[in-house]
Q: What sequence folds into this?
C-alpha cells in the first residue's frame, strides 16, 4: 500500500492581494515583474488572483525584486487577513 500523497498548498488570497498592491505601487506591470522574477506573466497573474500557490523560491524572488523584506511581506499579509 502506498502512503497518502501530500496535498498541494492552497493559494493565499491575502498574499496575492499584497503582491499586486506592492507591484502597482511601484508602477510595474505584470509583464515586467514576471520577467524580472523569471516566471511567466500567467504564473504571476494566477498568484495575484489566488489561483496558484507559489513556491517558496518564487515568493522570495518576488519580494527581492520588489525590494521588500520577507518580514515586511509577511506582516503585510497578516494585516490583510484582519
A:
Amino acid at each position: 500500500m502506498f502512503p497518502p500523497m501530500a496535498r498541494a498548498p492552497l493559494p493565499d488570497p491575502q498574499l496575492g492581494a499584497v503582491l499586486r498592491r506592492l507591484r502597482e505601487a511601484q508602477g510595474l506591470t505584470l509583464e515586467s515583474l514576471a520577467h524580472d522574477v523569471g516566471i511567466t506573466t500567467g504564473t504571476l497573474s494566477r498568484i495575484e488572483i489566488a489561483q496558484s500557490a507559489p513556491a517558496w523560491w518564487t515568493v522570495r524572488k518576488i519580494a527581492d525584486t520588489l525590494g521588500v523584506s520577507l518580514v515586511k511581506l509577511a506582516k503585510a499579509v497578516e494585516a490583510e487577513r484582519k
